[in-house]
């Protein structure tokens, strides 16, 4: 296991859980699910069960360095990679890749977002181990594909051929295509076909394999980092990264490599997964739904004549009284109260309205 | 004018504007209407236009003494009458009556609740002056009766005979009956008849007249205060009042005297009045309704797809975002958030539920 590493990507700035998440405190640093741990902490603890802590790295924005330090105090500074700007996942992975190459060129690395919900941790770890095994024995870029349970239009999909499903029987299968988020009609076809899996954004590969593919499909990006790798692990690292990122395109690893490579493999996974990208998805994943379909994350709460609603308050010592709502979200924080229909379009509209209003400071 | 006094009754403990009003801070001490002044301050200022400040007295609960001092700093301590317990209006009026008798037996006094909304102050003062005039020249208990604009079931009504309406033409008319709150059917008959007025709870009378009627209809109460009146205006006043109130029944002046006396007169009033007993009534009296029927009393507020709703927040530096509500009340304070249909029964139910819940401390 010494050669196995994990890179947790924690650079997101999304305002999808606004008003609980903010630009200054994005989702990965919050305990949105009420588990008692932040997403980042959950993700770290999950990998720490199969990897030594010193093999776990976190990539995040410079402005979040303090938060990561606070939430993962056991993590050494050298294990926290600070991006000067967000440039999507390809530059983030390139940074981690060249940093690890300089330390342990024979290594295998898992890359995982820091803000996803995983229901069955044991199943997850089993799949991750299988992915490590596969990546170590094959020149492959392995991804965990989630067996879809509904025609979700907020996720990317990965296709394998149906013949390979028979051939590989639950093990890793060669990927046919990576696809972007489909419309509903297409999503229904995807799910019905049985050939499509949700793209979890979790990858496992040997450093040598991903490096090769990056050099092939993103030669400039690879050269940028490779040319300066002597600066990594030195005092000059931050300056170098600042320059490298300045020239980087904003591009995802999916688009930069996975859609193009012929080395993509998929391990089908059924551990229960959501990227928790919306309040609606949080509501759907909640295990504490009462018999009227309400989820209440408030200590002092009186709910009546209400159904299908999510009520959440992060303000201390506050009584929340709710009556007569149907399919609503009520979110109360220290400085924002939002009462809004639960459907995704409505919540999205609220955040859009906010951005264009005089109250942009609350974002 | 030297002989004219006003007694402002500010002892109410109502939780009708819960969660803004509390047991520790009832409605009369709040600026519920957003006028910039509390009800008590409004009431005081109104009477101060026609009476010298030293002729204005406030009766309130002992626990509210500090609040009254703070809100009416110009009021001398001797002008604040402190009740040890709430005993409804008859004992409150008896206390004020015997206190004034000891000071100025020839006086005329107005009695007014401290927590009513009055739209046209000039008309109100004109009617009060007329009531003073009438009470000074006749042995009458004068009340201001509000010309009803709808069959309200939350108010008591006062009946005059239709013949007296012709006879007295807008001046004071002898009262036929005082009635309790009617049901809707009865209220509709009342309004249609043209003989009924809303009971505003505002009275004007000479001390000698009300004393006589009190002695006649509440002899024990009168004797209780009369026997100990030497203690008034002395250091022994509080002790005496404590004892007197201990023996007092809880009884309104309407029930104790007005329904029985033959000296009741009514001055018809149309200055725009509400006892503001419910959030619904506040909504109805609001002058700042937007074109979708919303009233918003929040500094930072984003309201969309919402109609007929009242949104109010007393918490500082908080953005309130409301979407998709119809005929709702959203009230946010430092320690309570309430989202509830606007109708009176729903709000009442919330407060009842609260009383019986583990969260009674928020009352």
Automatic annotation (TrEMBL), chains A, B:
Record-annotated MannoseP isomerase/GMP-like beta-helix domain positions: 305-354
Reactions the enzyme catalyzes: alpha-D-mannose 1-phosphate + GTP + H(+) = GDP-alpha-D-mannose + diphosphate
EC number assigned by the record: 2.7.7.13
Pfam families in the cross-refs: ManC_GMP_beta-helix, NTP_transferase
Domain Nucleotidyl transferase: 7-289
Alphabetized InterPro entries for the sequence: GMPP_N, ManC/GMP-like_b-helix, Mannose-6P_isomerase_type2, NTP_transferase_dom, Nucleotide-diphossugar_trans
Superkingdom classification of source: Bacteria
GO molecular function terms listed in the Swiss-Prot or TrEMBL record: GTP binding; mannose-1-phosphate guanylyltransferase (GTP) activity
Family indicated by similarity: Belongs to the mannose-6-phosphate isomerase type 2 family.
PANTHER family assigned to the protein according to its UniProt record, in alphabetical order: MANNOSE-1-PHOSPHATE GUANYLYLTRANSFERASE
Protein name (record): mannose-1-phosphate guanylyltransferase
Organism listed in the record: Candidatus Merdivivens pullistercoris
């Amino acid at each position: 296991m010494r050669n196995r590493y994990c890179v947790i990507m924690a650079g997101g700035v999304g305002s999808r859980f606004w008003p609980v998440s903010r630009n200054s405190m994005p989702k990965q640093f919050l305990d949105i699910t009420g588990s008692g741990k932040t997403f980042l902490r959950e993700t770290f603890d999950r990998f720490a069960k199969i990897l030594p802590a010193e093999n776990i790295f976190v990539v995040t924005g410079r402005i979040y360095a303090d938060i990561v330090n606070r939430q993962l105090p056991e993590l050494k500074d050298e294990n926290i990679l600070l991006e000067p700007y967000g440039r999507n996942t390809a530059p983030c992975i390139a940074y981690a890749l060249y940093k690890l190459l300089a330390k342990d060129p024979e290594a295998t690395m898992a890359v995982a977002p820091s803000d996803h919900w995983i229901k069955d941790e044991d199943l997850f770890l089993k799949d991750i181990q299988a992915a490590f095994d596969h990546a170590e024995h094959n020149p492959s870029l392995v991804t965990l594909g989630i067996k879809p349970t509904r025609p979700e239009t907020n996720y990317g999909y990965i296709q394998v051929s149906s013949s390979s499903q028979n051939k590989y029987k639950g093990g890793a299968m060669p990927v046919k295509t990576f696809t972007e988020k489909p419309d509903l009609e297409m999503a229904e076809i995807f799910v019905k076909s049985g050939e499509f899996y949700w793209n979890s954004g979790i990858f496992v590969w040997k450093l040598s394999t991903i490096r090769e593919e990056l050099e092939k499909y993103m030669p400039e990006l690879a050269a940028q980092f490779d040319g300066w790798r002597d600066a990594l692990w030195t005092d000059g690292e931050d300056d170098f990264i600042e320059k490298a990122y300045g020239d980087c395109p904003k591009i995802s690893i999916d688009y930069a490599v996975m859609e193009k490579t012929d080395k993509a493999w998929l391990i089908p996974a059924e551990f229960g997964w959501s990227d928790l990208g919306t309040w609606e998805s949080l509501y759907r994943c909640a295990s504490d739904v009462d018999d009227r379909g309400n989820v209440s994350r408030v200590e002092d709460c009186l709910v009546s004549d209400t159904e299908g609603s999510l009520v959440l308050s992060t303000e201390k010592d506050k009584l929340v009284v709710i009556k007569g709502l149907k399919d609503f979200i009520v979110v109360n924080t220290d400085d924002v109260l939002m009462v809004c229909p639960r459907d995704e379009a409505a919540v999205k509209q609220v955040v859009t309205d906010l951005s264009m209003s005089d109250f942009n400071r609350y974002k």
